[in-house]
Write a structure and sequence with these properties.
- About 40% of the residues lie in helices and about 10% in strands.
- Strand 4, helix 9 and strand 5 form a beta-alpha-beta unit.
- It is built from 10 helices and 5 strands.
- It is α/β, with parallel strands linked by helices.
């Protein structure tokens, strides 16, 4: 039986921009503490994040707004999220990849599980050249990116297209995402799920591996 670990990218594999404000401020020449929006780490203090969680705006809307705000602070004329992210994270993205993600990916791959990424905006957010700087992506059999399909989670078609590419059943997939709406969409088509906690990445990955099989071992 084929089993697959299907991961969102931003927040799940990479650290969120909220977690790396200090690095962003250094890279962009901003004073420490300038970026005070913290999303899931301080939802009460981030009204724009609350609007996104309440489905008033989309996740893309949220990051477009933050991109415009930071562009104004730095005197840039950015129109794309990727321009902000590339400027904030520099030429080497590996330092913002979660070590817990790399460990779980290695363990799942070594145990014979298939790996996939299901993202709403991988290349839109990080830029087209981003993937080539991440050697661990070579272990992924499928990278399904709505940057090109235009079909975003939690639309059932996004999950089903990924499952079809994996040539397995939804029930044979463990899907990991940090957005609850996306978790619900996966559950509705029969995928096993882990709602990723960005504050507890190690525990979230342990839960995903446990769903695949004991400690990530393929039975």
């Amino acid at each position: 039986m084929t089993k697959a670990l299907v991961l969102d990218f931003g927040g799940v594999i990479s650290r969120t921009l909220f977690e790396t404000h200090d690095l962003t401020e250094q890279a962009l020449g901003l004073a420490a503490g300038t970026l005070d929006w913290k999303g899931p780490f301080d939802p009460a203090g981030d009204t724009l994040w609350q609007s996104m969680q309440d489905d008033v705006i989309s996740e893309r809307d949220y990051w477009h707004q933050r991109t415009r705000e930071v562009a104004r602070l730095t005197g840039q004329d950015w129109t794309l999220m990727s321009q902000f992210v590339v400027a904030a994270r520099g030429a080497d993205p590996m330092p913002v990849i979660r070590p817990e993600a790399l460990q779980a990916i290695e363990k799942a791959h070594a145990a014979g599980f298939t790996l996939a990424i299901l993202s709403n905006e991988l290349d839109l957010f990080y830029g087209r050249d981003f993937r080539g700087k991440l050697p661990f992506l070579e272990t992924f059999s499928v990278i399904h990116d709505a940057t090109y399909t235009g079909i975003l989670k939690p639309d059932h078609r996004a999950y089903l297209a990924c499952v079809d590419a994996l040539q397995c059943k939804p029930c044979d997939c463990v899907f990991v995402d940090d957005q609850l709406r996306n978790i619900r969409g996966a559950q509705e088509i029969g995928m096993k799920t882990v709602h990723f906690d960005v504050a507890e990445p190690e525990q979230s990955y342990a839960a995903a591996l446990a769903l695949l099989g004991s400690n990530g071992e393929n039975p």
